[in-house]
């Protein structure tokens, strides 16, 4: 997992819960990195999972809800860092449906060894989209939050239903209907 995911996560934790919470979750975790991350480094997903688990235990907020909040923060990072990418699109359905064939291609140019989830478009209309998310990491709520922020970015709303195809969350169907 790329370091930017860790650095931004810890920044969010500090902003929302304070530096002491950052220290608490790092110290409670068994991290090969020692909790020291660079944006361009690559780190084990198990480290992110440990940080999330300890933050959840300390705050009483579920991991899924923490991932939703984090994805909102991460979307603003992407928006500020890569404004041209968002300007390529005029519609949230168009943008979400192009994750695999355009956005991930661009991400791989910056981070060639990034392990990204796959997004298979099953069905697409002007106002709806069915996408299958597959990842060895069950971070589908992070994807859900990014989709929510995508609609918000385009001053639009949608109903997004998440249906787990595998109980562990490594394969999920998103049913998206633009309001």
Automatic annotation (TrEMBL):
SUPFAM superfamilies named among the record's database cross-references: Ligand-binding domain in the NO signalling and Golgi transport
Gene Ontology MF: a single term: heme binding
Pfam families linked: HNOB
Taxonomic superkingdom: Bacteria
Domain Heme NO-binding: 2-160
Protein's recorded name: Heme NO-binding domain-containing protein
Organism the protein comes from: Algibacter amylolyticus
